[in-house]
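Lecture 7, part 2: worked example. A protein chain together with flavin-adenine dinucleotide.
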Amino acid sequence: MKVYDSIVVGAGPAGLLAARKLAENNVEVLLLEKDFELGKKPCAEAISERGLIDAEIPIESSFIVNEIFGAKVYPPNEERFVEISRSGEHSWKGYIIDKPKFLKKLLDIAVSKGVEAKLGSKVIDVKRENKFMKVFVKKNEKIESLTAKIVLGCDGYASLITKKFFNSTKIEYISCFQYTLSKCNIEDEHTLMFYLGSLIAPLGYLWIFPKGNGVANVGVGVRKGSPKFYLDNFIQKHSSIFKDSKILSFGGAPVIISGQLPKITDDNLMICGEAAGQVIPFTGAGIHTSIVAGKIAGAVAAEAIKNNELTEKALITYKRRFDEIFGKNIEKSLKAMRIFEKLSDEDLNKLAEILSGEDIIDLANGLNIEKVAKKLFSHPILAVKIAKALLT
Ligand SMILES: Cc1cc2nc3c(=O)[nH]c(=O)nc-3n(C[C@H](O)[C@H](O)[C@H](O)COP(=O)(O)OP(=O)(O)OC[C@H]3O[C@@H](n4cnc5c(N)ncnc54)[C@H](O)[C@@H]3O)c2cc1C
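Predicted complex, written out as structure tokens:
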């Protein structure tokens, strides 16, 4: 019986980095992806410069679509915006990428390191059998059974592996819908735009991410009602931006926003990326976190295989190392999100008068939320609603 050292399920950012790290550590790895083309799930395609550096990929024109230097956040009344600075100590440098091309590039690198990749191969079941994992794969209507010492579930928000082996009952999702539109009349194509409010994006936000030459990813995430309804409504009401726009593509998908699962390893098993809830909850950004998680999971799995020690206890180092980098950010971002979901439109309008762009970055990404809380203490209503809650 052929026994693979490792099988990685899913060729998104998490799976591609996990597979690459296994191969770089001279461990045999089979990567299984259900689709024939990578990056079919809709995505707003924003990633920070740091994210690309962590992906260990040359920042090159083949997948970079636009450079981003800042953002504007609009409160419900849209009377003003909070600008996230384009320069200075707290500036944010990022990119809009062509995600399918980016993933293809990551796949090429992984294959060049020795990863065996099978596209169009859907994993339909995984079972534990003695000390191995059995993986059942459907390709061209045929079902094949494969055996591996370890399986890494990098299969995204609907992960079969998470559902079967881990406690997924507390996972919460936000529903997203996005158009890629042409001929958008955007003043500054190097700035991201976010819109908040109960009539625009209940318990979520709406985004306009420019791709250059008038093309933009325009989408919304909501936790009440239909995202498409809110997006169509916004586009109709913002004819100054969209009156000549045509739909180039569209699609919807959920994002996990309830934070990292408490347990993400088991004997002969790891889950990684969105499958493990490793997304910044407030922003729904999961490309960078998944890249980092994939790298750590791949390296820890390789070590475990070499030591022939594939117990949960040996694999748990992966979670500890991921938590050192993103654990606190995910926790604090979730906390800030929970507080913000209780705010009224009026509160959000007030906040736009008080907070700076830097404060918003800190809150959304779970960075320096204590500093933001102290600032809000000077405001009578927001002190009780937000500042106290942030500090407890
Ligand atoms: C509308 C929208 C916009 C977003 N915008 C951004 C953004 O701008 N920036 C950002 O950082 N994040 C964004 N995200 C979140 C981001 O897309 C994900 O968090 C990130 O892609 C997670 O990476 P992953 O590798 O864990 O999972 P995924 O990217 O979901 O990859 C999982 C892979 O597994 C494959 N797969 C699933 N099941 C199986 C199976 N049974 N067998 C074989 N293969 C399988 C899938 O086909 C897929 O290729 C957005 C999400 C949505 C829905």
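The chain has 13 helices and 18 strands. The longest strand covers residues 142-153. Keep this in mind for problem set question 3.
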